[in-house]
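Reopening this one. Same input as before:
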Amino acid sequence: MAESIQTLSTKHLLGIKDLSVRDIELILETADTFKDVLNRPIKKVPSLRDITIANIFFENSTRTRLSFELAQKRLSADTVNFAASSSSVSKGETLIDTVNNILSMKVDMVVMRHPYPGAGVFLSKHVNAQIVNAGDGAHEHPTQALLDAFSIKEKYGEVRGRKIAIIGDILHSRVALSNILCLQKLGAEVMVCGPSTLIPKYIGTLGVKVEHNLLKALNWCDVANMLRIQLERQDIKYFPSLREYSMMYGLNKQILDSLDKEITIMHPGPINRGVEITSDVADSKQSIILDQVENGVAVRMAVLYLLANQRSL
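Same output, byte for byte:
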């Protein structure tokens, strides 16, 4: 690492909207260094050996939680994992009480996923620890957007000037909002595509293009980021059936091969194979989905490292 200590302009990572362009660039540069570490025979550095991090997940998560845990272990941090379903939260304990009890065990940083938008912001104002938002409801998922931007940069050399189509359930996706904010700050053009019932009314205020025809979106873009349908967040029916959705907005190899150019396929996971994307697309050479997973560890290492740097200033 560089000898001069570099830090972010913010104490917490609550959302992409709080990051400056320089913050985002610094995270991506630092992640590049950590990706080299992950490819060494010994994949560990002592950067956070004095830091204790609590992973607090009030919603189910596999990839994000494991990615954060692995990032923390690679940085030599001490970690404590907390699942709300098996805790006193299910007995009515408040969020602040839960976190303060954990902090009393001398925890420095909290990585939190919560079903309510703004939970991380709320917590950051009431507890004495650095907060990393691992997803708050349908609001933001900043580390996913950062790893997606890192993956695009790795593929194309830079994000600026690239055309990114985000396709699927935009309305319920925290990935979509964070991606839009991050990609625009880095100079990319962004389009959202999906049925009108799954495109939020406010989307026009974000300066993105809106398209309801999948083929038009695919012919426009360099990168298609396919989002899953988030049935767990849907309280009403937004389309007749998954089969009909798949016929209109599902990406298969036949469609991919019919395009007049080669585009890159991304997906934040988990994939509903056969709904928004077929297996032969997800596993094709145009897909960088597994690269995204690998890059997630490096990006989360960068975020934790840069936040921890502030503690030593």
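So the earlier flakiness isn't reproducible anymore. For the record, The longest strand covers residues 130-136.
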